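Below is a filled-in request sheet from our internal design queue. Each sheet records the structural input a requester submitted and the sequence that came back. We keep these sheets so that new team members can see what a complete request looks like end to end.

REQUESTER: design group, bay 2
PRIORITY: normal
MODE: inverse folding
CHAIN LENGTH: 288
BACKBONE (tokenized):
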């Protein structure tokens, strides 16, 4: 399997909504974003799939060395097919070593902490694992205006907040709570109630949890609006893949809002056909 085929398989196999946004890109940009997404998936998988923290730390260190190889031939060529697929696109789209390393830094945070005391602390994490990803993606899509970087970071935050809301139950199984602790306290939701995914909780847990989730959903929807307001008109056409993601993820949030309790026990999804329709609508009609 070629590195390009590996990256394509990694992106498609994830079932992510990002894949639908890539479909409408011209081949060179689609190859670049697919390789970049495959790299991001590999880093994320280290934290999600490796149970021994020491082994995960060692793997992330190995990835840092692999990134160094992409930018300095004295270290040798990268060994992993995801980076082999990405390396030819680095210079063309202004992708820097700091971008790839910050993504590793974000996943490193997952190994070092499983709680966030407040929203500013959560935003710092989101900057690394999503804002930087948005910045690189905007460059690959065809950014022309400097202001688009601010849009990309804000959109990355909105997408990551959506992931956090969707994955409350899955994260609880891993012993992680991304919802800020001071906001849990505000809505009188206990950490142990989330970790048990509401099982055996007091009868009033459901309204307390739903109030907490509706607050999270409303804030995330507001961040989408803030991001879209930052996008310069001159880059609206090139940044359609990001707008497709915004459309898909906002629709997902609206689905969760109909019954917030469901995120504790299942992953809420849109059908592939629904995702494709939302992406096509942005591509063909230019609206979310």
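RETURNED SEQUENCE:
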């Amino acid at each position: 399997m070629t590195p390009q085929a590996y990256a394509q398989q990694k992106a498609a196999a994830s079932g992510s909504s990002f894949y639908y946004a890539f479909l409408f890109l011209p081949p060179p940009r689609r190859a670049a974003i697919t390789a970049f997404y495959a790299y991001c998936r590999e880093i994320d998988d280290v934290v999600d799939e490796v149970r021994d923290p020491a082994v995960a730390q060692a793997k992330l260190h190995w990835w840092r060395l692999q990134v160094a190889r992409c930018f300095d031939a004295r270290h040798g060529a990268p060994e992993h097919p995801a980076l082999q697929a990405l390396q030819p696109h680095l210079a063309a789209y202004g992708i820097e070593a700091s971008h790839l390393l910050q993504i590793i830094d974000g996943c490193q945070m997952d190994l070092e902490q499983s709680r966030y005391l407040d929203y500013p602390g959560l935003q710092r994490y989101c900057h690394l694992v999503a804002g930087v990803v948005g910045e690189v993606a905007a460059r690959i899509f065809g950014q022309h205006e400097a202001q688009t970087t601010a849009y990309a970071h804000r959109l990355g935050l909105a997408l990551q907040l959506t992931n956090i809301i969707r994955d409350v139950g899955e994260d609880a199984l891993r012993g992680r709570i991304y919802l800020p602790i001071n906001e849990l306290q505000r809505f009188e939701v206990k950490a142990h109630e989330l970790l048990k995914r509401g099982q055996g909780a007091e009868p009033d847990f459901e309204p307390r949890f739903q109030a907490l989730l509706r607050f999270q959903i409303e804030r995330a929807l507001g961040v989408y609006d803030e991001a879209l307001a930052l996008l310069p008109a001159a880059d609206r056409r090139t940044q359609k893949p990001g707008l497709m993601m915004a459309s898909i993820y906002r629709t997902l949030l609206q689905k969760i809002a109909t019954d917030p309790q469901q995120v504790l026990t299942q992953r809420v999804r849109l059908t592939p056909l629904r995702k494709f329709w939302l992406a096509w609508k942005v591509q063909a009609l230019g609206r979310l």
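SHEET NOTES:
- The two ends are 37 Å apart (CA to CA).
- The chain has a mean pLDDT of 94.
FILED BY: M.R.
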